[in-house]
Amino acid sequence: xxxxxxxxxYLVTQMGNDKSIKCEQNLGHDTMYWYKQDSKKFLKIxxxxxNKELIINETVPNRFSPKSPDKxxxxxxxxxxxLGDSAVYFCASSQDWAGDNEQFFxxxxxxxxx
Amino acid sequence: xKEVEQDPGPFNVPEGxxxxxxxxxSNSASQSFFWYRQDCRKEPKLLMSVxxxxxxxxxxxxxxxxxxxxxxxxxxxxxxxxxxxxxCVVNRGTSYDKVIFGPGTSLSVIP
Lengths: 114, 111
Prior knowledge:
- The complex is a heterodimer of chains A (114) and B (111).
- Chain A has 114 residues and is mostly beta strands.
- Chain A has strands spanning 4-7, 10-13, 19-25, 31-37, 43-50, 53-57, 64-70, 73-78, 87-94, 104-105, 109-113.
- In chain A, strands 2, 4, 5, 6, 9, 10 and 11 form a seven-stranded mixed sheet that branches. In chain A, strands 1-3-8-7 form a four-stranded antiparallel sheet, with no helix packed on it.
- In chain A, strand 7 and strand 8 (73-78) form a beta hairpin.
- With 111 residues, chain B is an all-beta fold.
- Helix content of chain B is 0%, strand content 53%.
- Chain B contains no helices and eleven strands.
- In chain B, the strands form two sheets. In chain B, strands 2, 4, 5, 9, 10 and 11 form a six-stranded mixed sheet that branches.
């Protein structure tokens, strides 16, 4: 069974479109994250949710809107896509929000904006 | 200064070699430290946590130096399968703890 799953794995779209990425974890964790890894491979946190509550929002444009319907799911909606949004987006989860826990990552969603 | 910095790499080493990576962090309040491994076009996975007393897992040894604010990872007897990017990860030590990923160091083990 996949611990953290994301869909879709690949997303190719035109500038200006709106798209969503879904994430689910079956580990029973309280905390979920969205990370962006750009072409330079630098992994940067975007958002973190703990038990459906937003706890970290790292100065991400408000075109990005996360939604957590329950603690096992964290989705990411992106409005008005721009070329600079092209990256790999990773979802992750950890047992809780304390920084000493292992984070488990999904396989990533490779977004290409044309 | 960036919060977490690593040797830029890439490191190209022959099989069987010993290789060491260093990582420095800027926040003296940081409490938790990790090494993650990321294979090409894959997700990061935890390699090992780094404890104050240092820790060893098979061919891998991690050390923490709080006074100098750096972490090291030593890989002995390198295998081809060790080829990956190694990410140093540090928790920020603020009220909502947040881990910061370093830029990573690329390792290629050559036959």
